[in-house]
Amino acid sequence: MLLIGISCFNVPSYSAWIPETTAKIAEAARQAESVSVTVGEPVRVGIGNQNFSSYVYKNVGIYGTAPLSLYNNGVLLETFPAGTNINISINPDFSYTLTKDDGERIADLTGVLKFSAYGGCLGVKGLKRAGKPALYHGTFEIMKANGGGVQFNLVNKLGLEEYLRGVVPNEMPVAFGLEALKAQSIAARNYVLTPRSKSSSNYDVVDSVASQVYFGANTEKTLSNTAVAQTEGLVALYNWDLILALYSSTAGGYTESYANAFSDPVTKEFPSHGKPYLIAKPDILHQTPLDEEGAAVAFYKSSPEAYDMQSPYFRWEREWGAEELQKVLETNLPAQSATGFVKPAFEKGETLGRLIELKVKKRGESGKIVELEIVTEDRTYRGYKELVIRRLLTKDGKALPSANVVFENAQDDEGYLTSVKAFGGGFGHGVGMSQFGAGFMGSRMNLSFDKILQHYYTGIVIGTKPVIVSGADNQRTVAQTFYANKKQASIVVDNRYQLGKLEVNINGADYDFELPTSFFGGNKCSRIDISDYINVGKNRVVFSYPKGENPKKGLRLFVELVGKNDDNKFIR
Q: Above 50 in pLDDT, residue 570?
């Protein structure tokens, strides 16, 4: 083994990780695993029906493009020829009846059913995605649905990287180029690895826009597969945590801060608490904030140069007559009142009265409306939050593309509205990465994926997901695989328990790294430069708890591939 000394540097306090004993470390890991998947583990995807309106079934047909194997409660029962369709229906006693298309009865089974097609893909009879038969890697599981009713879920279980190959080309056009697709791959990987409230304990995510668009193997593209492969194992981090890597189609030239677009998911407070990596940022350095009405009007009634200016939604207009707008609001106000973000609440069947004006009371830095007044002859209503405002102001049944919008109110001699014209920019919530912006930065400005991500997510680093190595039996050895685009990498170690060394196997070679034991600012973080030991391409590291160390201690660590960039000098 090679014994190497390393340097140390200061880090902020990481109160989220304070295990004091091996038992606490193990319990923290167990709880984390209960709410999210980890790098290298499978992803469980709930497969919806054709229009994603339901994720529960009473019957479904499954086939394989290779021989189809049926398992019941983990036991292999039978293998069917490729192309054989197996119909599964659920009975009132929650047993399953399996038949072939000709009506031949195969079996009556209880418990969990699993299907695999080794060497091929699994399909769902009649289901299409992107106009093609829906095909999937991995396995299918049939299990009783939560929430009552005689019905079941169809769950696709597959590896994380396989899952991403079915996501990336459906979340971003491959025409945006390799570097933008790499940025999208990391954002999508962050999404699925970040703990979240799940709609069902049977799966981690669903296959629609309610999570990420996942259309399976038949929609994979060569370039997007390359992007997934060349970012394997990489995530975006801020202060040791995976970031909430939000993205939308088009920001309109200025992204918005998280707090001004989203309410707190628990308390529903709005504006919510901000996230330091999701802050408002213009594409052009000299652009000043748009939170004043005059600045927002000037910006959204013009077309300045911006990264996402090639989007068809970079600038848009909408217009309503007074009667049309009144009917639109009377239709939409009840549903949006139910969210709690319209005050006072407007009940179904109420009439609004004649409109006087739409008045913006508060904007975010991007000009996004935070608070909107709807002034009528009888009373004034206030709408809060970008999605609520977009859904209040529909045109031809469609919500506004974004809440980055300014209004021209036309009034008659009595002060009543005759029409309203909207001038807006962007499509989606506008927080985090603009996908059209990423495409422009990668293909037209020749910027790498890390520069794209560090523009949209302030203060991040890019590396592997932080893991814990401890004396607990299930944490003594932790392996990670990652792709390096150049020979530059460091292991970042949180060594607050003052272990003397770390054992690491890098691409088959063993190394012992000494860890300094002095404290800096009450914390201990060490950086181990492993640039000389990694490959350009795929790498595998195995971290092992050092022999002879106190079994009640532990280390937290990750591999950093791209360090923090504070200046973003590449911005025009």
A: no
